[in-house]
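Reopening this ticket.

The earlier resolution said the output was attached, but the attachment link was broken on my side. Pasting everything inline this time so it's all in one place.
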Amino acid sequence: MAIEAKRHPATVLAGVVVVTMIWQCTRADVLITKSGSRYTGKVTRTDDSYVLVKPDGGRMVVPGGMVKEVITAKELMPQYVEMRKGVDLSDDAEVEKLVRFLEAGGLSQERKRLLAEAFALRRTASEDNVSALRVLKAWCERYWLSDKAKACEARAG
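Inline output:
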């Protein structure tokens, strides 16, 4: 008699969540094709191609002749650190510039830290001013910080 292993859907979902969380904690590489397409994930070089493991676990093989450039997160960090020096996080344009750089480079954890710091600065400045909290809510929504946007809305009343 064979024993059949069955997985509860919640167990499978929990596994997917854990893998996603682990992925988000790592820095990604960016593969840029000659046509200008950008792909984010973990890039490794083989003899004549590049293998890209995407955040969702999918795998893509790109022939070496189609690749314009591979940018590793390790290469981008010194540039980001330099860009970050002297930046006024209360200036939306400067924050936007940094966020775009981090997104393009697949540096999701650094993006998260930057936005948390910028949010804290804005939250302190808005105190309990209803109109300032609504502006902060809109700022949060622009960067997909839905939990912080909800907190601003609740505080604004």
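Reporter confirms the inline version is readable. The first strand starts at residue 29 and ends at 33. The helical segments are 9-25, 73-84, 92-104, 108-126, 130-142, 146-156.
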